[in-house]
Amino acid sequence: MRRIVVALGGNAILASDPSANAQQLSLENTAEQLMPLVIDKNVELIITHGNGPQVGNLLLQQLGSDSEKNPAMPLDTVGAMTQGQIGYWMGQAFTKAFDKHGLKKPFVSIVTRTVVEATDPAFTHLTKPIGPFYTEEESEKLKSQNPDWQIVEDAGRGYRRVVASPLPVEMLEADVIEPLLNAGALVCVSGGGGIPVIKVERGYQGVEAVIDKDFSAAKLAELVGADELVIFTSGGDVYLNYGKPSQSLLTEVTSSEMNSYINDGYFAEGSMKPKVAAATLFAERTGKIATITSLDNVKNFVKNGAGTRIIGS
Predict the structure, then answer these.
(1) Could you tell me which CATH class the domain 2-115+168-311 is placed in?
(2) Does the annotation mark 182 as catalytic?
(3) 128 noted as active-site residue
(4) What integer pLDDT is reported at residue 270 of this predicted model?
């Protein structure tokens, strides 16, 4: 039995239409694409997902209706709201797919808190893009309306707001995953990287941040003893010199080789770099395999492990 942690990007949920109906339809398609993994009797599957587009959009809604009687919720609470929202949609989508394929299988989504360090430099160096893309003109208008926001150009695709993205240290709900897997459940955990909290004298306190879902997926995979981490991206497999005449596909590389490529600046900061870095970190720490590929490639991944495979060294 192989235990696999799958990380889905927020764009596997939201493409262009931000309506609830469109996002649920996207998730129904995503659930169907993942069914070859779900059906595989030799696989225990844990799913994580991003929430960058969703948390940014919800935060804008909160700020748009902010008043003394109806105050906007802070970023950690908005992250929790999107975890519940997307977890519900995922449950609906996978239950529908289970019925279609004649499976009797429970789906459980866990609202997850992820511990971060209060001293993480990410709180002063903001890097995590959230919300929609803006034109340069729109970004300048938003900056004037929200002077405490940082808005940056995102990998040539437009401008987005960035927030703190501290590294995950621990997941408070990690221990409940094993019993759910033993009960035959498909488990969705650490949505949006988890709700960021710091340890205080008694309990934990939420903080204004969005944790990168790929680094949280890597930490989760490590904590649950996963045999493999799989990061599904809209861009597919990993290339050197992507989009240039000299681009070359990476099929199987060691973690030390991949670290060299990262340090040499081959991957875009707001795009492929965090995915590659998180996958490499998992492989490096565990000596196991991390794969990066596209959702369209699930069947080939199940059949022959297709994708960019990073092996711990």
Answers:
(1) alpha beta
(2) no
(3) yes
(4) 67
Give the mean pLDDT of 6-21. Answer: 84
Domain ranges of the chain: 2-115+168-311, 127-163
Q: CA-CA distance, 214 to 232, in Å (whole number)?
A: 10
What integer pLDDT is reported at residue 17 of this predicted model?
Answer: 86
Task: Single out the catalytic residue among 9, 191, 259, 275.
Answer: 275
Query: Which one from 128, 192, 194, 307 is the annotated catalytic residue?
Result: 128
Catalytic residue among 11, 29, 297, 300: 11
Query: Maximum distance among all alpha carbons in the chain?
Result: 58
- Residue 69 falls in the annotated catalytic set: no
Residues with Cβ < 8 Å from 80, sequence gap 6 or more?
111, 195
Q: Is the pLDDT score of 10 beyond 80?
A: no
- The one catalytic residue in 51, 87, 213, 307 is 213
Determine contact, residues 57/131, Cβ cutoff 8 Å: yes
